[in-house]
Amino acid sequence: MKTVLCVCTYRRPEGLRQLLESLTTLSATEGMEVVVVDNHADGEGAAVCAQMPSDYPFKIHASVEPQAGISPARNKVVNTALTLEPTFLAFLDDDERPSTDWLSELLRVQKSTNADVVGGPTLSEFPPDVDESIKQNPYFGADLNIADMAACQLQAAGNFLIKADVIAPMAPTFFHPAFAQSGGEDLAFFTQLAKQGASMHWAANAVVHEAVPESRLTQSWMKSRVVNIANSRVRVMQMLEPGVLPAVVRGIKTVALGTVASIQTVCALVVPDMREPARMLRWKFWGKLSAHLRIATTRGEGH
Are strands 159-163 and 88-93 parallel, antiparallel or unpaired? Predict the structure, then answer.
């Protein structure tokens, strides 16, 4: 058995360095190799890989993908990983740190369930003194909050393991280029796998931690994130569930969301605790509506 870890990086050299260093604490890494694809022409991430000490325990295959966008980077990292003839491909992001048992837990659940794909939770780590309401915001991190080994459909690509023989037939384009600048390429990927009958299970103890910088604690950042995620979700469904009837159903749901958002906004004028939920609903509605109008939003952050 051989696992290849896939990492895409974009202008986070220090984050990538910390990630690579953290891999030395992992269990169940026998024979593991690492593929890093830097999605910036300056090659800061590739340079970090070249600077790792000579006794670093994992072979690193680093390259640069000059075509901007998360989809080209993910496609290159997978295509490169498959040339190494792995049994499994595992995925982490360059702002994450895996727990010691991260990989062993993914492999345990895969073996127990014979899953084609296994995912785990990404938990956010906030700066000191951050308000508890911010920590509870579901738009930070990625956790399905379901039982260990439960069947599911995964959505986020920052923490998962997949059989090489499941992903290989999708070559060379695993992540759709339509989502290169917006994100949502991971949701499209997992939705496509689900439609093909791939089994997915949850590894509740395969935890990775994601540092949340101060720049992500602003209202403008959160608005961009909520709008963009809602927009991408609708566009994924437009691509994978075409036709008049699915479009009508999506449209009705969006109108209903807009109605609820409007009611909550009015109520929030007299109930202050409703202001934040109402604001989030308005952003979500705008994201979905813009997708119905064939407007693709753009993610204004690094990968």
Answer: antiparallel
Q: Please check whether residue 201 is in contact with residue 152, taking contact to mean a CB–CB distance below 8 angstroms.
A: yes
Judged on CB neighbours under 10 Å (0-12, 13-18, 19+), 106 is: buried
Helix, coil or strand: residue 262 = helix
Whose CA is closest to 7, among 69, 53, 73, 102?
73
**264 close to 281: Cβ distance less than 8 angstroms:** yes
Helix, coil or strand: residue 37:
strand
Q: How far apart are CA 11 and CA 27, in angstroms?
A: 28
Question: Is the Cβ–Cβ distance between 77 and 183 less than 8 Å?
Answer: no
Going residue by residue through the chain, which has 303 residues, state the pLDDT in tens, using 9 for 90 and above.
999 999 999 999 999 999 999 999 999 999 999 999 999 989 999 999 999 999 999 999 999 999 999 999 999 999 999 999 999 999 999 999 999 999 999 999 999 999 999 999 999 999 998 988 899 899 999 999 999 999 999 999 999 999 999 999 999 999 999 999 999 999 999 999 999 999 999 999 999 999 999 999 999 999 999 999 999 999 999 999 999 999 999 999 999 999 999 999 999 999 999 999 999 999 999 999 999 999 999 986 544
* β 33-38/3-9 pair status: parallel
Residue with tokens 């949502």: 184
As given in the structure block, the two tokens for residue 249 are 């159903």
CA distance 57 to 98: 16
**CB-based contacts of 193: which residues, under 8 Å, 6+ apart?**
116, 117, 166, 200
The conformation of residue 120, written as its DSSP 8-state character, comes to -
Say if strands 117-119 and 159-163 run parallel, antiparallel, or are unpaired: antiparallel
Mapping DSSP to helix (H, G, I), strand (E, B) and coil, where does residue 119 land?
Answer: strand
Q: Which CATH architecture has domain 3-216?
A: Alpha-Beta Complex (3.90)
CB 249 within 8 A of CB 241: no
